[in-house]
Write a structure and sequence with these properties.
Elements (H helix, E strand, L loop, with lengths): L78 E2 L10 H11 L12 E10 L17 E10 L14 E9 L2 E8 L12 H8 L15 H9 L4 H8 L13 E2 L4 E4 L5 E10 L8 H10 L3 H11 L5 E10 L5 E2 L2 E2 L15 E10 L4 H6 L12 E2 L4 H17 L69 E2 L11 H8 L3 H16 L4 H14 L1 H11 L32 E5 L6 H13 L3 E6 L4 E2 L7 E2 L2 E2 L10 E4 L26 H12 L3 E4 L3 H7 L9 E3 L3 H12 L16
Parallel strand pairs: 15-16, 15-20, 16-19, 20-21, 21-22
Antiparallel strand pairs: 1-14, 2-3, 2-12, 3-4, 4-5, 6-8, 7-8, 7-13, 8-9, 9-12, 10-11, 17-18
Helix pairs in contact: 1-8, 2-3, 3-11, 4-9, 10-12, 11-12, 13-16
Length: 740
């Protein structure tokens, strides 16, 4: 009989088991696994060459350039001193980034799956004291286009995967286009952009099987982040509820990097940008996200489009944290040029500077959402960059990748990308050139075109790079010592969460690492968690059935930042979706009144009934149905009201719907499932009349937090609205015990 030890379990990512320690002894590349075979080695015209099938694979023990030049370092860009700007002469960086930028066509390499919307930005004028940017002057309104996205998945993946989200805004200012290209997490995985290809290669599906899609729960991702410990801070944010937002409308945005604002006198201020959603920052719970990925993989893009269509326009305040532009560019011991660090809001409050409202959906997804091209180097006078080594590489990479993705250098002429300011750039020809240029002298200086175009002075809005003294240093590939702390900010974030949120982090790490085939990768990541928080490490280790290692780094204690927690506030409920279960046994006058009350509160009421169409009463008006028991699922609703007894529908048979259970049930099992799921996920649940029987059948205690029983909508709807302002009935999640 086969034993557990000799049973071959599929899924190993490599032909041999890796070591816990990073391999350092040089060796030839590993051969393919036994189940793998490459195409026959034939010539371009189909003639056999007789070469082995793997002769076209990578060869040699050492990392090289594409030209075969051996390399001694691929982790650090060539800089003018450890804190200086990156040098254009870095041939390895340029080759590596350029090749990476052109790896996918025509889909984006990252952020392929996205949703977009048009809107306006109205400046409060509060930033005008520290920047001359015209769109930030008092009461200036600027058109914007925003694209939200996931990072890892393809265009055909799902919305509610656990992933970082992109949050990019194109401001069509009268001084030129300004792009604020950010994420929903304020820190990033890496400190130097030269590592970005490595990060994405590790996070993308395994190249042999192209699975798993849009997930980080696999060996290559955790192999990379456990070896590259500067990624631990971002990973911690991603394992929190921030990795599965409720909607784009309830998602925070961050510029990630530190930027410079410049006033009219040339004085500079360092800033970090924040987008604060008016609806608050809210997330899904893990089971809810998993169900959504199967039931409605378009959940986030549908929510955004539906909210705009219904008039519940999403809004965000743009805010800034400000810091003195000192020579060391440090603040309270935090290196402002390190993109893996954030500054707690308790140390530097976020000051609101304007309001963005998204009020129009795209007319054509491809023409707008797919073809929009962002670039952090699209700047306007009054906003400049810093020497953040990740930002420096992005300034090259974004422009380069658009050329490949959009078919040439004229992508700015695509309608969604066209500036709302006059363009006279002397750039000519190229693929997809749609302008018809006049004149004969596209060069400067010239006399044949009357000298036009002319250089602009600062008095007419010229962009002037901030003059910055570059400290003398050795040309080398290394980071400053202030970049060396990889664990304290991960600890700060984790210990700033409530116990409920900490439980979700523990669950996420346990799930993700539990999906890794190699035990040594799980062991190595546990070693990193031990350096962050012993309680967290022990809880995850227990879930994995592994011993908890002890810390190997003396990580400093930190003051918690309550601002990173999503629990505890009260927020508007505009656009929240309330499902109302009704049937022929319901008092339809109360159902109609409930629908009206929900709508009057700015929420969206959806009637759920045994079938589609209408519910016909014996007397009075019929009620239109939006969802049937077959098409509805709890994940679509922020709250559920049982105004009916859940009488079985005609299709409540397993042959038509596996969720329907066996025939003959008193209540339709799909209604019971809907309510029980909503209860598990901490959602508000109301009931009156025959609806009380549904709660009982679902095992929902009527005295549990977030459960409202009453005589009708007058008593139930106001309480539901109040509960939704806190997003969930968090008291329903007894904490398993604080990990820290």
């Amino acid at each position: 009989m086969p034993t557990e030890d000799n049973i071959k379990i599929p899924g190993a990512p490599s032909i041999e088991q890796p070591a816990v320690e990073e391999p350092t002894a040089s060796r030839e590349p590993l051969p393919p696994k036994p189940d793998q075979q490459g195409p026959e080695a034939v010539s371009p015209t189909g003639s056999p060459t007789g070469a082995p099938a793997n002769s076209r694979a990578q060869s040699g023990q050492y990392l090289t350039t594409a030209q075969g030049l051996r390399l001694g370092d691929t982790d650090h860009s060539l800089k003018a001193g450890p804190r200086g700007p990156i040098l254009l002469q870095d041939h390895h960086l340029r080759e590596k980034i350029t090749h990476f930028d052109h790896e996918r066509i025509p889909e984006r390499v990252v952020h392929a799956r996205g949703a977009g919307a048009h809107g306006t930005f109205r400046s409060y004028g509060t930033a005008s004291k520290i920047t001359k940017a015209g769109f930030l002057a008092p009461d200036v309104e600027t058109p914007v286009f925003v694209r939200f996205s996931t990072v890892l998945g393809s265009r055909g993946s799902a919305d509610t995967v656990r992933d970082t989200r992109g949050f990019s805004t194109k401001f069509y200012t009268d001084e030129g286009t300004y792009d604020l290209v950010g994420n929903n997490i304020p820190v990033f995985f890496i400190q130097d952009g030269i590592k970005f290809p490595d990060l994405i290669h590790a996070g993308k599906p395994h190249p042999d099987r192209e699975i798993p899609q849009a997930q980080s729960a696999h060996d290559t991702f955790w192999d990379f982040v456990s070896l590259h410990t500067e990624a631990q801070a971002h990973t911690m944010w991603n394992m929190s509820d921030r990795g599965i937002p409720r909607s784009y409308r309830t998602m925070e945005g961050f510029g990630v990097h530190t930027f410079r604002l410049v006033d009219a006198a040339g004085k500079t201020t360092l800033v970090k940008f924040h987008w604060k959603p008016k609806l608050g920052v809210h997330s899904l719970v893990w089971e809810e996200a998993q169900i959504i990925n199967g039931m409605d993989p378009d959940f986030h893009r549908r929510d955004l489009a539906d909210a705009i269509e219904s008039g519940a326009y999403p809004e965000w305040e743009l805010g800034i944290q400000t810091f003195p532009d000192t020579e060391d560019q440090m603040f309270e011991g935090i290196d402002l040029l390190d993109p893996t660090k954030f500054v707690p809001e308790e140390l530097a409050p976020v000051q609101p500077i304007g309001l963005m409202t998204l009020n129009a959906n795209p007319t054509n997804y491809f023409a707008e959402t797919e073809q929009v091209a962002f670039h952090p180097g699209h700047l306007v006078p009054g906003i400049d960059v810093t020497n953040d080594p990740l930002l420096q590489v992005r300034l090259f990479s974004y422009l380069d990748t658009q050329i490949s993705r959009l078919g040439g250098p004229n992508f700015a002429q695509i309608p969604i990308n066209r500036p709302h300011a006059p363009v006279n750039d002397m750039l000519r020809d190229g693929m997809h050139q749609t302008a018809v240029h006049g004149g004969v002298a596209p060069y400067h200086p010239n006399s044949l075109d009357g000298g036009c175009p002319f250089m602009a002075g600062q008095d007419v809005g010229a962009f002037v790079d901030v003059p910055e003294e570059i400290a003398a240093g050795i040309k080398e590939r290394r980071n400053p010592a202030s970049f060396d702390d990889h664990f304290s900010q991960a600890r700060l974030f984790f210990r700033s969460l409530t116990s409920v949120e900490q439980d979700h982090v523990i669950q996420a790490y346990t799930f993700e690492l539990g999906k890794c085939y190699e035990a040594v990768i799980r062991e190595r990541q546990l070693m990193a968690l031990a350096n962050i928080d012993a309680g967290l490490c022990a809880a995850v280790a227990k879930g994995l059935g592994m011993p908890a290692p002890t810390a190997t780094v003396d990580t400093q204690d930190v003051e918690p930042s309550p601002a990173v927690s999503q629990i505890g506030g009260k927020w508007p409920v505009a656009g929240r979706v309330v499902g109302i279960i009704a049937d022929t046994e319901s008092d339809l006058s109360l159902v109609a009144a409930a629908r009206e009350a929900v709508d009057a509160a700015g929420m969206v009421p959806l009637i759920i009934a045994p079938t589609g169409g209408v519910i016909e009463p014996e007397h009075g008006a019929a009620v239109t149905v939006q969802r049937s028991y077959l098409t509805a699922r709890s994940i679509e609703f922020d709250a559920i009201i049982a105004a009916g007894g859940g009488i079985p529908a005609a299709d409540a048979v397993p042959g038509r719907d596996a969720k329907a259970g066996e025939p003959g049930a008193t209540l339709d099992p799909r209604v019971v499932l809907m309510v029980s799921e909503a209860f598990r996920h901490g959602k508000a649940i109301g009931a009156w009349g025959p609806g009380a029987a549904v709660l009982d059948a679902a095992g929902v205690p009527q005295d549990a937090p977030g459960i409202i029983s009453g005589e009708g909508p007058d008593t139930v709807i106001p309480v539901v609205r109040e509960l939704l302002s806190a997003h969930r009935a968090w008291e329903r999640f007894p904490a398993a015990g604080s990990a820290s």
